[in-house]
Amino acid sequence: MVKFFPSIEPEHEDFMLSQPLFFVASAPWAGKHINLSPKGLPSRSFSILTRNTVAYIDATGSGCETISHIYENGRVTVMFCSFGVSPKIMRLFCKGTVVEKADEEFQRLKMQMGKSVGLTGARAIILLDVFKVQTSCGFGVPLIGETTASGDEEKGFHDRNSLDKWTSSMQEKKALPEYQRNSNFRSLDGLTGLRSARRARGQWMLFEDCWAWVMRIMKQWDAVMVGILIATSVMLISKSYISI
């Protein structure tokens, strides 16, 4: 059900621009908060510039979490999902750049996005380099509006039965544990996942946990280098005092 693409395909473009809203997620390297923001009006605020470049107009809001996180580390995920009869979720994994309204590049980039693009109170354009596209079923996303047997449309949110049908079918075939074994044992970044899936794969749990810890430390190379620098400085200062 999950598919990955190196870039945005034409059918992805049609899907994204036809949705009523999208979501933007970001996080700092360290801290308690992970930010998730809904963004409306994609037709006026979102633009696909190339197969690996998108941008959206960032309107003035009550906070600036996404902007702050991009300035720190650049990590952004954009998600579109269908609330219509054809379920789908699409994620764009990106590295972002903030182009503020006062920057020289702002007007040029806005023109590149299209004359119809714009929001009142815009403070920046978020330019995103898309390095991976992911699509998945979206069975768990509710349906807005539903046509009854009589042909009348019921307004509001309605649960889909797609997810229940799929899981029931997998359970009947006794295929759900195998699916979890192959799909739920680790994250996209290689972090350890569902423990039962890891056991089913015969992983050495302690070794895998230690390796994940080492990889996490290695990714924080700047903190490691600062620690080494401080330790070296303390040692040199201590030696100088001892020699005196």
Task: List descriptors.
244 residues, Pnp Oxidase, Chain A, 2 domains, two-stranded antiparallel sheet, 9 helices, 10 strands
Walk me through the structure.
With 244 residues, the chain is an alpha+beta fold. It folds into two domains: 3-141, Electron Transport, Fmn-binding Protein, Chain A (Pnp Oxidase, Chain A), CATH 2.30.110.10; 174-239, no CATH class. 38% of the residues lie in helices and 30% in strands. It has nine helices and ten strands. It has helices at residues 10-17, 42-45, 65-72, 105-113, 162-172, 176-183, 195-200, 205-219, 221-243; strands at 3-5, 21-26, 35-40, 46-50, 53-59, 75-81, 89-100, 122-136, 143-147, 153-158. Strands 1, 2, 3, 4, 5, 6, 7 and 8 form an eight-stranded antiparallel sheet that branches. It has a two-stranded antiparallel ribbon with strand order 9-10. A hairpin with an 8-residue loop joins β2 (21-26) and β3 (35-40). The termini are far apart. 15% of the residues are buried. The mean pLDDT is 87.
* CATH architecture annotation name of the largest domain: Roll
The unreliable regions are none
Give the helices and strands as they follow along the chain.
EHEEHEEHEEHEEEHHHHH
Shape: flat
Helix and strand content put the structural class at: alpha+beta
- Beta-strand level of the residues, as a percent range? 25-35%
Our measurement of the CA-to-CA distance between the termini, rounded to an integer number of angstroms, reads 70 Å
Largest sheet properties: 8 strands, antiparallel
